[in-house]
Amino acid sequence: MLIRRFEWTGELADLAESISVRQRAVEFTPMGHADLPSYLNNLGNSFSHRFGRTGELSDLSEAISAQQAAVEGTPQGSIDLPSRLNNLGGSLARRFERSGKLSDITEAISAQKRAVELTPQGHANLPSYLSNLGHSLFSHSQRTGDVSGLTEAISAQQRAVELTPQGQANLPSYLSNLGSSLSLRFERTEDLPDINKAISVRQSAVEHTPKGHVNLPAYLENLGHSFTLRFLSRLNDQDLRGALSSFKDAAIAPVGPPRVKLQSAKRWARTLIQFLPHSPEIVLAFDTALALIGLIAGFEQTLRGRYSQIQDIAGLAPEAAAAACGLDRGDKALEWLEQGRCLVLGQLNALRTPLDDLRAHDEELAQSIANVAKQLDDAGSRAESQTDMSLTEKITLHDEARAHLDLTRQWEELLKTARTIPSLESFLMPMPCSALMQHLPDSGPIVVINVYQHRCDALALFAGRDKPLLIPLPSFSLEKASAHRAILDCQLRTRNLRVREVDVDTTIDEFSARGMRPVPLERHIEDPPVHRVLRSLWEELVKPILDAIGFSRVDRAIGEMPPRLWWCPTGPLSFLPLHAAGIYRGANREGVSDYAVSSYTPTVSTITDRVKNLRSFDADASGLFLTSHPNVSNASSIPGTTTEVRSIFKRAEESGVRALKLEGDEMSVAECLERMQSFSSIHLACHGSQNAAEPLQSRFLFHKGSLELGTILKLNLKNADLAFLSACQTSTGEEKLSDEAVHLAAGMLAAGYRRVVGTMWSIGDQAGQDVATNFYEYLFTHRDGTSDGAFDGTLSAHALDHATQQLRRRLDDSEHSLFTWIPFVHFGY
Q1: Between 330-340 and 604-612, two packed helices, what is the crossing angle to 10 degrees?
Q2: Please, which of 44, 686, 695, 734 could form a disulfide with 67 given CB 3.0 to 4.6 Å?
Q3: Nearest to residue 682, comparing CAs of 762, 761, 616, 772?
Q4: How far apart are CA 408 and CA 806, in angstroms?
């Protein structure tokens, strides 16, 4: 009953309960019991259904494991064997569609052929087995180009349709599958009768599916695909209208898998852009698509699960924003970038948002939301089931997952209730442009730069203005951004500025890195590559923006102070040093620092939230906690961290700042977390490690353990002000999640710090000391004269600007020198 209800409604709670019940049935059934294969088969089917809803590969692995065990435990000649072979083949085929592993589809076809062979003519299940076999043959042909397999697929699917009476519930599925194979053969042969028949059978599939059925969006999307193929062949406007109508109906359907609906919304938008580029419906299509992202990577999943889902839909927000800029809709571009980027950080922020406005209307409701938010925040870090766990462990974790899902439903119901209150109709909904333009900093603009395929645009946001200033950047492109990223990455690797370990015999000098192994360099390495990147960024991207927003060069020599400027880049631009764009060779040298004091922000709301929610710290918490870890296992010694921390601590005491210093073995990870609660600012001088495969395991390395990003994201610090991460590569994200800001600096912002100093790559030990000590010297010197031990990081951006300028005065403009000062970056307010 639960599975049947899910098939109609797509309600995840039904699936969760089904899995729980079936797991217990397997657990309580002894090995060798006649009913065990049946229970395993049923459990596998539930996991397979959930994979279809969530796209989570671990569910598919669980399904295959259970279904294989069911097949192996079923005696030859059993009437249940064909059904179990068919189910196993279906799951293997789905895994092939995700992973592309040919052995999976080969095994799927083998299992499904056996299922067909073992099923007598006239059996009620034969059409289903034939259709599923045909779909696997179609998938294999689609990948390999095997024409004979496609012919066999069409034959099997045609037979499935012929054997199925009108009105039978599975007929729409068989018709849609047949349409897939006919459409693929048309792509190969351009035989018009194939595409005509494909459209006909897919129209029948839609017509035979009740409104509100969970599979209707998939049938509509398939129909839209066939219409598109015929339109591209005949250029008949009626086919274009058919494609657009099908995609739209699928995208806005009230029920259906969010992934299918999102795919339909994207095809709806892209088809409009390609053939009707001025259609106002483009805005509706992308509005629909962006609204679906939150359903695909929703609160019911762990943080790790959400990041996994997001990898598959990366790039949607920049694509939508580029389309909006093409329509001269900078307001929509801003809304979509905020809604579709840094999704997980935005969700964490929503769970931790102040509820003062709501409390003024309904104290009890506000408290309920706060309670559920805290539980959801904790649940996001729960463990996930692994295929090699015991069944008892899996059941326990699945119970936690069900509770997590229940919390998500409670959260959604509470939000609905809050939104019925006048003036709170948009409570915790994506913000419109008008709201995003409020609470901008007075000290300078935020510049969002969007790059996607063949266009690049900037959106400059100024306090006091209603809409962003749209700045087209026709000389720059995604191709150039990617090329610059590749050049810079190559240069970093040449210098081993991406590596963590160091030879213990290496002499520590000014350029020995915190977490790298220097490689003997040929002295004839040419200078141009990095200079070319920085010049291109300056001439084609940054300088046109500065000109458009009216920034002029300041004369630092006479004490002029540049204004603040926040960079909010997208895609591969997130890995490029925009703050260092400039010309560093020849007579006409100039760069960003001649015009502005640069900071970065993952999103606009990261800054506006901090402007809006200016808070005073508890007097007891204001202060600076410092820790150094020069010698950790499997990493180079960085003795400068000890000197650095001791020097800063001494100056803090001399300045009357409340400070605490713990070195090496004096501090554990737990102690660090405790001090982060009791001190408003923290200075971490240690090794840092970015984990590309598991971003949430990126970490700071201590003498006693490590502090991981996943742990940092659990924090909700009420008195956090400044974090100085004097470690390597703390602000570099993961390439597949370039728009999610999955790095240690962003993690500190999510934990509550108002501002963070980080590094884009490994830093020199001596350079790290110099920048840190000059940074704090600036802050101590510019204290407001209070004598209560308070410490304030408000001037941290200017302090970092001052510190890097001091470092640059000792250096030339060789690439070696550029790599020394460029990595230091400021995030936040």
Answers
A1: 90
A2: 44
A3: 772
A4: 51
Question: What are φ and ψ of residue 566, in 5° steps?
Answer: -105, 125
Give the type of residue at 760.
M
What secondary structure letter does DSSP report for 249? H
Would you state the structure tokens that stand for residue 400, as one six-digit string? 């936690």
H or E element at residue 458: strand 455-461
Structure tokens at 91: 């799951």
SS3 readout for 265-329? HHHHHHHHHHHCCCCCHHHHHHHHHHHHHHHHCCCCCCHHHHHHHHHCCCCHHHHHHHHHHHCCC
End-to-end CA distance of the chain: 54
Choose among 126, 87, 89: nearest CA to 106: 89
Six token digits for residue 227:
């219409």
Residues pairing with 565 in the sheet: 598
661: β partners = 626
CA-wise closest residue to 823 among 628, 579, 645, 635: 579
Residue 197 backbone phi and psi in degrees, to 5: -70, -35
Closest among 820, 817, 819, 826 to 488, alpha carbons compared: 819
- From CA 166, how far away is CA 170, in angstroms rounded? 10
What is the Cα–Cα distance from 50 to 18, expressed in whole angstroms? Answer: 10
Query: For residue 628, what are the β-bridge partners?
Result: 663, 685
Angle at 44 between CA 389 and CA 405, to 5 degrees: 70
Beta strands in 709-762 (DSSP E): 722-726, 755-759
DSSP state of 635: S
- The CA distance from 607 to 599, in Å, is 11
Eight-class DSSP state of 513: B
> Cα separation of 355 and 344, whole Å?
20
- As a whole number of angstroms, the distance between CA 245 and CA 230 comes to 15
Q: What are the tens digits of pLDDT across the range 793-817?
A: 999 999 999 999 999 999 888 888 9
**Could you report the per-residue pLDDT of 427-486, keeping only the tens digit for each?**
888 889 999 999 999 999 999 999 998 899 999 999 999 999 999 999 999 999 999 999
pLDDT of 99 > 90? The answer is no
* pTM: predicted TM-score of the whole model, two decimal places: 0.82
Task: Extract the tokens encoding 373.
Answer: 């938010």
Residue 527 structure tokens: 């200078």
Question: In whole angstroms, what is the distance from residue 202 CA to residue 174 CA?
Answer: 10
Of 118, 191, 116, nearest to 151 (Cα)?
191
